[in-house]
Design a protein that fits this description.
The protein is an alpha/beta fold. It is about 40% helix and about 20% strand. The protein folds into three domains: about 80 residues, Orthogonal Bundle (Arc Repressor Mutant, subunit A); about 100 residues, Periplasmic binding protein-like II (D-Maltodextrin-Binding Protein, domain 2, 3-Layer(aba) Sandwich), CATH 3.40.190; about 100 residues, D-Maltodextrin-Binding Protein, domain 2. Helix 8 links the parallel strand 7 and strand 8. GO terms for molecular function: DNA-binding transcription factor activity; sequence-specific DNA binding.
């Protein structure tokens, strides 16, 4: 396995297509396909599952992703070291805004890893169920569930994540088995307060066709605790599942949503090296942490 093959692997993982990776690397998509096949043959595993949505990482692919991104970071840091850049660690205060699910269950793990590398850095995580105003400098950068369509922003896709319908095992044992969507009739649903949904990407209950919420909150953490208390079923981020023993997916083959996290910065910060370096670390480690939490590792 060599670095060139890992670069191709990373491009396919990030674009989820051979053509997208080809455009990114400026090589023919057929060549990308051959390189991936060669890498899979050499490792003796399947790295991608092809679906109508594109190329999705398998479990083995997800495991390789963390190592490939670590190698990418090492190459980047090596180049920085040789060029005389990056001699000092990141310092000062950086404020991140994020929806509370991400802020509670993902970002603390991400920041802990960054802090190990940069002990003089102070990070503030602002968890808020709304959009942040970067123009007013409420935060230095924001993690968003949708990409802004207007304004002067630097926007980068961080990673995809998934959500599933879930309930406590003890709750499910007290009711008839749910084998089809029709079996959800009669169960209470937990979700967002309808008129406080600040982004259409959060309207999960409507998307899966249930159309009603019996117990609601504008906070993911509160919703999770409602489900933990046995108030009913709800749509939960897969990366939250490891934090609640006994929480079980319901109809996982039928109901599973896919979303993405986006990193948004003000365009004027393009030349701020400290924020750029921090953003690179944030994106890399968030990808690893979300993948690890979703796989249960």
């Amino acid at each position: 396995m060599n670095w060139d093959d890992l670069r191709v692997f990373l491009a396919v993982a990030r674009t989820e297509s051979l053509s997208g990776a080809g455009r990114q690397l400026k090589i023919d998509p057929a060549t990308v396909g051959r390189r991936i096949a060669r890498l899979e043959e050499g490792l003796g595993v399947t790295l991608f599952a092809k679906s109508p949505q594109g190329y999705e990482l398998t479990r083995d692919g997800g495991r390789l992703l963390a190592h490939a991104e670590a190698a990418e970071q090492a190459v980047s840091l090596g180049a920085e070291d040789v060029s005389g850049e990056g001699d000092e660690g990141l310092k000062g205060v950086i404020r991140i805004g994020a929806p509370d699910g991400c802020a509670n269950y993902v970002l603390p793990r991400v920041v802990a890893r960054i802090a190990q590398q940069h002990p003089q850095l102070e990070v503030q995580i602002i968890a808020h169920p709304r959009l942040f105003n970067l123009s007013k400098r409420e935060v230095d950068l924001a993690v968003s569930v949708s990409a802004p369509t207007s304004g002067r922003f630097l926007v980068q896709r961080i990673t995809d994540y998934h959500l599933s319908l879930a309930a406590m095992r003890w709750y499910l044992r007290q009711h008839a088995p749910i084998e089809t969507p029709g079996g959800l009739k009669g169960h209470k649903m937990v979700g967002y307060v309808p008129d406080l949904i600040f982004d259409k990407e959060l309207d999960y209950i409507e998307e899966i066709g249930l159309g009603r919420v019996d117990f609601s909150s504008n906070s993911v953490s509160v919703q999770l605790n409602m489900i933990r208390a046995g108030l009913g079923l709800g749509v939960i981020h897969d990366f939250c599942l490891p934090f609640v023993p006994g929480l079980q997916r319901v109809l996982p083959e039928t109901i599973r949503l896919k979303r993405a996290f986006w990193l948004v910065r003000h365009a004027d910060d393009r030349k701020v090296e400290r924020l750029s370096r921090f953003s690179e670390l944030l994106v890399q480690i968030m990808r690893e942490e979300v993948a690890g939490l979703e796989s249960g590792e």
